[in-house]
Amino acid sequence: MSTQRLVLPAVLLSTLVLAGCPKKPAPPPPAPAAPAVNQDSINRERARRDSIDAAERARRDSIAAAERVAADAAARRERMAKMMADARNLIMAPVYFEFDRAELSDAARAALDAKLPLLNANPNLRIRAAGNTDSRGSDEYNLALGQRRAAAVKRYLAQHGIDAARIDLISFGEERPAVPGESEDAWAKCRRADFEIVAGGESLVLPNQ
Amino acid sequence: MNEERGTRRRARQGWRLTTPAVSQRLTLALTLALTLLSAPRLTSAQDTTFREGVRIGLRYDPGLRPGVIVLPIAGPAGDSAVAILQRDLDYGDRVTMITGDGIRAASAAIGAGGTGSGTAGTPNYKLIASLGAAAVVRATITGSALHVALHDISARRIVQVHDFVLAGAPLSAEWRLEVHAASDEIERWITGTRGIAATRVLFVRDGQVWLTDSDGSGARPVSDRGLSLSPAWHPGGRQIAYSAFGDRGTQIVVRDLASGSARWLSATPGGLNVTPVFSPDGNTLVYAHGEDEGTDLVATPALESGAGRRITVGRGSDNVSPSFSPDGRRLAYTSGRSGHPEIYITDVDGTNADLLTPYAFGDQYYRSNPDWSPDGRVIAFQSQLNGVFQVMTINLRDRGIRQLTSEGRNEDPSWAPDGRHLVFTSTRTGTKQLFVLDVESGRSRQLTTGRAARLAAWSPDLARTLH
Asked: What is the CB neighbour count within 10 angstroms for residue B164?
């Protein structure tokens, strides 16, 4: 059922395409009817039609095959894009800190450990760690605190084999809150190091799993 | 003329008030009330709360302040000039402005003359004295000059006459600054201490550095768009420095206010470069520089390129927000070396670093953003009380701490050149706005309105940048 449905429009389409193509010479008009029907001419005519049908079948098969290949490729691309997005999200996942502290918690170390395979598999990948604070402290002191948080992240990654030259640092202090508001919850989300891909993020190599 | 010469000495010694009669005191109190009611931008907020034995704010005693009347000035810009003179003298918190009926009465009593030039009838000083006035300012605008004569009511004569240059177009920013400069000199004639009206305040709004006059007028941005923080004044009043965010970090920018030209400091090209401050001689710039191992104070030539010299050795801790002592030999700054932010003092070469604010083990106090007073005696800073910042001062002699604010969150204090007024950020009206506090009387006023403002820096006396 379903193949038939697919094939019919395909035939129609190809006929239309053929008919609509102005450059292609029109099929030769049927041979003038001879007074005496010659078996040879019947055979020639049959052979001619058979060959047209065969060409048409081959055409249909190749279109279907091309469509299958394209669909597979699209699915593969989608899978790749999702894996790339996952990989990028993994690189960019923030790391969180306690109030007025720049030491890495166990959770922060785990989040950084998760980035290591990707960083190792992509030696041209260059990232920027941005230190951020909540809004409670001094605007100015928080700039230094944010810098220390970003530096703690860089030090940890370097200790685990990542070339320190691949990690840029910046501090935004309390200038770029992750979420607005003055609550323990909001503050906790603001005390973080964010990550950005500076270079080499276009085609990530995924680590062997 | 000879009157002027004869009494200059007296004016310098300070104003001698005759013993005020009870009725005079009443008049003073009344006029004070009127002044308070009529003065624009004045908030009723007085910090008079008491907590833990700390006295916050002082009582406003009008009896100690000479009454002053500014007479009307003729001409198209006259009303504006009078309004500016009155407001400036009022904001100085050293005199009591007499307004309303007092002005009309004094105007009639002085008569048509009283300008210190030409001949006119003798003013009725007795009547003016009964209004509670110790001084009357009689000014005229002639051509490009503000001609001011100051009447000493108890001495019954004119004691000062001066022509102040008015080169700017009436009501322009330059013209306003020129009138402010006249106010400051008049305040010096009357009280012996120069006023602070001819100053401006830098602050941060929407990530840009802004500038406002000391009376809150003329607020405008002076830096490029993008995130800029922590503006500071060069002591000459013509250049400013601040930190600006770029793609790779923050850089110190030195900008000329008149030309707008900006120079990006190159002593430390990467990393964190924030909280710049100029030395009192204007030759050195000190700021906080951070890379992988904490943030330390660095010194570099202020107005030319040169190498940076590290001052603090924080060993991975945060050291920011420097403020010079007036003699330029020491620096107060915020350091987290003890585990949380406290105020420290060091010699400018980095030696003799010492904890200034008291530290008790186990407390969660957070003290930061010092600003050394112009007389060198106290340092203003912010301290957390129950998780909320308040502005305080610490006396360098006995380390006594005085709490100055209590309403809302208050931070980032900066001293006016008179060492008596502070500008700081407060949330007392909801958003962050700048407020000015007279630390002697406890009187405060709101300086900015509209979108949030923070990180204020009070300029030096800008009268010297005129002409």
From this structure: 20
